[in-house]
């Protein structure tokens, strides 16, 4: 038996899928380190864990280390320490190094987490990416703008999911941003033009053994700039085709440059109008926005379990890709709570046969500012173009009304 500690800052539906996937790995005894008490875990999970330790801050390396030692007192020596969230990867790596546990090292974790370090490595290794500058002062930002021109994208060096990421289009935008620029360094990047995609990949022993491509409609940044906008992601059935050979090779080079030996990565990339590609950024963790569920539907395999087995056993069984899949993410115009969802009957009549999973917004649900909206509809079929057309119809027909 192997004793595995899963760091679960908060009990959420998405996080519990990873916990369940880990509990299902043969030969694993599972302990949970969390900010939430054990009583908040559903019985289906609570009955399957052998240890639990509550901390005030599950992102603090010191508290993680103390929690691991506490769980070791309940279960015995710990063999693996894992977690699925991007902000966890650096503190987990620090604790692994201190406790002598296997897994991603602190240096590699920082290469993936700090986007300024990442882009510098890319440049040194010949991985195509946007020109960039980590600006600590206003003068550094202005020097970079003089070099690349407007528009530019600004983001925190350790951001994720386009949070606190902005596009500065005009001199007025730039002046307004610089006027409120704080002491913390900000990453300025050349604005990449083209179609935005992602590449999810599994690397084992330094070699990419599996990958998947997804296309965004529209780009994540555009979605963050327009909180009312409903959007789609499409993952084609066939990805091992000449059209994706360049990005597959580029993605493998990028992961290798950052030093990852074994793990799952999520990479954002652009295909420029001339056919060339450029890497935006990579996270050494599972993708968000329910992508893991989409991948599960594409292959008829539980990818949450496959990720856990990769993290625990350093192995990955490459599954057959059977379907094209996609998701339409539902959001209302404005802010507030959901009043109603319109077009359900029409959407069901037109595209219902393709739906494999759906979570429609419910009256009273708070919209908030979540990137993946207040609901989604997932579709799949062997025909990629059929899924693409159905996704566009889904965001045209379904409308979320807020109050």
From TrEMBL:
Classification via InterPro entries = ATP-dep_AA_Ligase (IPR052032), ATP-grasp (IPR011761), ATP-grasp_carboxylate-amine (IPR003135), ATP_grasp_subdomain_1 (IPR013815)
> Single GO molecular-function term?
ligase activity
Q: What PROSITE patterns does the record point to?
A: ATP_GRASP
Q: Name one GO biological process term.
A: purine nucleotide biosynthetic process
Assigned keywords, A-Z: ATP-binding, Ligase, Nucleotide-binding, Purine biosynthesis
Pfam families reported in the protein's UniProt record: ATP-grasp
- Boundaries of each ATP-grasp domain copy? 119-312
Protein name, per record: ATP-grasp domain-containing protein
């Amino acid at each position: 038996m192997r004793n595995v500690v899963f760091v679960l800052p908060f009990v959420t539906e998405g996080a519990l899928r990873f916990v369940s996937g880990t509990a299902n790995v043969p030969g694993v005894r599972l302990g949970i380190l969390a900010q939430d008490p054990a009583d908040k875990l559903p019985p289906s999970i609570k009955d399957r864990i052998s240890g639990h330790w509550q901390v005030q801050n599950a992102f603090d390396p010191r508290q993680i280390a103390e929690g691991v030692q506490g769980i070791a007192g309940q279960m015995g020596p710990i063999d693996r320490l894992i977690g699925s969230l991007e902000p966890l990867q650096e503190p987990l790596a620090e604790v692994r190094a201190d406790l002598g546990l296997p897994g991603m090292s602190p240096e590699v974790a920082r290469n993936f987490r700090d986007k300024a370090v990442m882009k510098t490595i890319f440049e040194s290794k010949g991985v195509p990416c946007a020109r960039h500058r980590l600006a600590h002062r206003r003068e550094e930002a202005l020097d970079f703008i003089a070099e690349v021109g407007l528009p530019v994208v600004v983001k925190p060096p350790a951001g994720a999911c386009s949070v606190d990421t902005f596009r500065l289009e005009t001199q007025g935008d730039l002046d307004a941003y610089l006027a409120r620029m704080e002491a913390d360094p900000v990453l300025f990047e050349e604005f990449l033009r083209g179609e935005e995609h992602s590449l999810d990949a599994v690397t084992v022993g330094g070699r990419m053994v599996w990958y998947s491509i997804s296309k965004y409609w529209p780009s994540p940044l555009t979605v963050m700039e327009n909180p009312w906008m409903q959007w789609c992601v499409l993952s084609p059935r066939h990805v091992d085709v000449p059209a994706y050979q360049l990005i597959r090779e580029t993605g493998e080079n990028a992961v290798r440059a950052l030093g990852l030996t074994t793990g799952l990565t999520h990479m954002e990339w652009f295909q420029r109008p001339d056919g060339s590609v450029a890497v935006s950024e990579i996270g050494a963790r599972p993708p968000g926005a329910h992508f893991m569920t989409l991948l599960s539907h594409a292959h008829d395999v539980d990818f949450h379990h496959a990720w856990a087995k990769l993290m625990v056993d350093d192995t990955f069984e490459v599954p057959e890709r059977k379907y094209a899949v996609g998701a339409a993410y539902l959001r209302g115009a404005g802010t507030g709570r959901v009043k109603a969802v319109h077009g359900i009957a029409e959407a069901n009549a037109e595209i219902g046969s393709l739906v494999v999973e759906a979570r429609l917004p419910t009256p009273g649900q708070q919209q908030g500012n979540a990137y993946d909206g207040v609901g989604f509809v997932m579709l799949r079929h062997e025909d990629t173009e059929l899924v693409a057309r159905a996704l566009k119809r889904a965001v045209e027909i379904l409308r979320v009304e807020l109050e």
